[in-house]
């Protein structure tokens, strides 16, 4: 059993909290189950021109400084020259589209189990909201062969090979980004060295989340993915070249993260917020829907091993930790029950 399922198994969801909607049959008006109240309609800030989310060129000598600015000011940055080939990114997107274009009954063959963490289903945050999202997802941890074999019994290798290769490349990129992010925080790599600190050979926690936002007859009153922060250290997101991702910035409001050709988006998550002792915000973000384009995105979540003892790193004897020390699995478990209240529950 993968490390995430180990944590989620104590908090199983019921089948109706996992099963996606059949978006193919929808016409106006959108069903009441998916029509969000006016206070939640996805309106963008009139001050969005104030936004200047940094684009980091990993080959530039000032990459660490631009990363620090992005993380501190926005909790997000985009990255180019990241070493992942355009061809691989396009293959992942095309396999993702292939999966979500299947009829619902076929996708249901790979439905996530109530206590499980991988396979087809709605977003894990669904039970925390009274309305449903215009979204379906597919989660991969390690090999995707079991689920892909149920979707395409005679033809699943193409999908699996691409997802394996992408996860391999993402891990390399994530390790490089982690090292730059720690530099930008003046944290010596040794302070958060999973191998040394756990004394175990357990690797980082990683998951690949394929997201699909079918075309929607009324994007003004629907939400693709409701506002949330990501739980791990950071997320590397391919959002294809269709906009839809928005972040919330205090004093500005909701700001679109405009797609930059060839760039990947990096979102800071809760665990890095904790390690940075609050210096880097874990960014609140959401995805909005589109009337004419079926948008897909591919999110790679990266975090320490589940048994890693997490603590804020303080740089001087005058600074006090804002959060108590706890194991990653304890934090993920608190979050699976309390979502956005989790951080305040571990605040000192
Ligand atoms: O689709 C997007 O742009 C955002 C996806 C996301 O936030 C997630 O998978 O956690
Ligand atoms: Fe997210």
UniProtKB/TrEMBL annotation:
InterPro entries (UniProt xref): DIOX_N, IPNS-like_FE2OG_OXY, IPNS-like_sf, Iron_ascorbate_oxido_reductase, Oxoglu/Fe-dep_dioxygenase_dom
Annotated Fe2OG dioxygenase domain residues: 203-304
Keyword Protease tagged: no
Record's protein name: gibberellin 3beta-dioxygenase
Pathway in which the depicted protein is active: Plant hormone biosynthesis; gibberellin biosynthesis; Hormone biosynthesis
Family the UniProt entry places it in: Belongs to the iron/ascorbate-dependent oxidoreductase family. GA3OX subfamily.
EC code: 1.14.11.15
Domain of life, source organism: Eukaryota
Biological processes annotated in GO: gibberellin biosynthetic process
Enzyme class: oxidoreductase
Lineage: Eukaryota, Viridiplantae, Streptophyta, Embryophyta, Tracheophyta
Cofactor(s) of this protein: L-ascorbate
GO terms for MF: gibberellin 3-beta-dioxygenase activity; metal ion binding
Oxidoreductase keyword on record: yes
Keyword vocabulary terms for this entry: Dioxygenase, Iron, Metal-binding, Oxidoreductase
């Amino acid at each position: 059993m993968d490390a995430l399922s180990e944590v989620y198994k104590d908090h199983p969801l019921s089948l109706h909290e996992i099963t996606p909607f059949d978006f193919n049959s929808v016409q106006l008006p959108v069903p009441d189950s998916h029509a969000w109240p006016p206070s939640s309609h996805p309106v963008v800030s009139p001050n969005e021109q104030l936004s200047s989310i940094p684009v980091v060129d990993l080959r530039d000598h000032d990459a660490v400084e631009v990363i620090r600015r992005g993380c501190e000011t926005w909790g997000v940055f985009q990255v180019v020259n990241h070493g992942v080939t355009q061809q691989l990114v396009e293959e992942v997107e095309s396999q993702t589209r292939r999966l979500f274009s299947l009829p619902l009954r076929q996708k249901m063959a790979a439905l996530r189990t109530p206590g499980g963490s991988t396979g087809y289903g709605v977003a894990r945050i669904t039970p925390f909201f009274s309305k449903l999202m215009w979204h379906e997802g597919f989660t991969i941890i390690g090999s995707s062969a079991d689920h892909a074999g149920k979707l395409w019994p005679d033809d699943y290798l193409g999908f699996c090979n691409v997802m394996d290769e992408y996860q391999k490349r993402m891990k390399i990129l994530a390790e490089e980004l982690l090292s730059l992010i720690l530099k930008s925080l003046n944290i010596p790599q040794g302070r958060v060295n999973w191998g040394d600190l756990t004394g175990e050979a357990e690797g980082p926690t990683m998951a690949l989340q394929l997201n699909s936002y079918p075309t929607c007859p009324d994007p003004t009153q629907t939400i693709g993915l409701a506002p949330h922060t990501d739980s791990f250290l950071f997320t590397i997101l391919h959002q294809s070249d269709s906009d839809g991702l928005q972040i919330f910035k205090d004093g500005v409001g909701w700001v679109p993260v405009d797609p930059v050709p060839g760039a990947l988006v990096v979102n800071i998550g809760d665990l890095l917020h904790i390690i940075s002792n609050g210096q880097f915000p874990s960014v609140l973000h959401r995805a909005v829907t589109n009337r004419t384009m079926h948008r897909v995105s591919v999110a790679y979540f990266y975090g320490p091993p589940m048994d890693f003892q997490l603590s804020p790193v303080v740089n001087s004897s005058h600074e006090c930790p804002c959060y108590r020390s706890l194991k990653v699995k304890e934090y993920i478990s608190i979050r699976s029950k309390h979502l956005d209240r989790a951080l305040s529950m571990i605040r000192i």
